[in-house]
């Protein structure tokens, strides 16, 4: 259990009114963006589900904010999860992918919900989902059996796992604590992250970002991308990839400056991991960077902050324990401290 009770929000002197009307007035923040970011967003194919995604995010924040009629009041965290793709063709047949199963994000979502948060789970379509880790890896059809001409039932051997997953998932959704939004490409991901961050701006320090998605560092700008399938008969392929601008700093500077921001640093060479995490902490003004090494990422992670670093480990004495449990507990406590501190500063003004 998290150390602190997290329903202190009614004490906060921040304006938390996040009505849907006010969210529609957020306007276009692109005037303030640096040129690389502007180029990226200008070149991106517009989000197909922009209007419905914005509405869903607005309603979810409304439901969990103090302005809500039913007075449910929770902190909100945006958990990003899975890898982003980089299409090589506009009518995409081939793409570059970033490694991530989505397990970190899915498991962490469950622990945030348990700690009382409302979670916007921004995930790669088809990657691991919350409450599904105990489901059988077998093909879907092996979970069911025909019991008559037109009736089907869950196979007894899978019934417990499916019941557990359904209970966890349905309860989180029914309580209004889970909103799942899928992405595939880096274009989709960053546009959705921007939309969510701008929507969360008015939550002040009660909003949080847990950026576990593995985001591509390079991309092919839409206008220089081949429209049709690249032909192998044209010989070897020369690709020039532009650099994806780092959006972490933009979240801090412009999109949601008061939100509590946690990013991840993945390396395969442990000798540079903490140095790189420390650099990211300072460069992007994160509140914490979670450093992990590819092969040991499920066993241990190190949380790097300006105050120092703390390593948390999976409880090896329990076979089904996950490193995300102590990780999220620690981050929830840090978020509590951050809210308290922000509240104190706001009161002094
Ligand atoms: C991570 O480091 C995640 O912990 C993992 C989780 C992707 C390793 P899985 O999904 O793995 O459970 O299989 N995410 C961030 C990776 C990343 O691309 N970080 C960038 C960097 O390291 C910064 S945004 O430069």
From TrEMBL:
Record carries keyword Metal-binding: no
Presence of the UniProt keyword Ligase in the record: no
InterPro entries, sorted: CoaB-like_sf, DNA/pantothenate-metab_flavo_C
Pathway(s) served: Cofactor biosynthesis; coenzyme A biosynthesis; CoA from (R)-pantothenate: step 2/5
GO molecular function: phosphopantothenate--cysteine ligase activity
Alphabetical UniProt keywords: Coenzyme A biosynthesis
Domain DNA/pantothenate metabolism flavoprotein C-terminal: 208-301
UniProt superkingdom: Eukaryota
Cross-referenced Pfam families: DFP
Biological process, per Gene Ontology: coenzyme A biosynthetic process
UniProt similarity note: Belongs to the PPC synthetase family.
Protein name: DNA/pantothenate metabolism flavoprotein C-terminal domain-containing protein
Organism name: Stephania yunnanensis
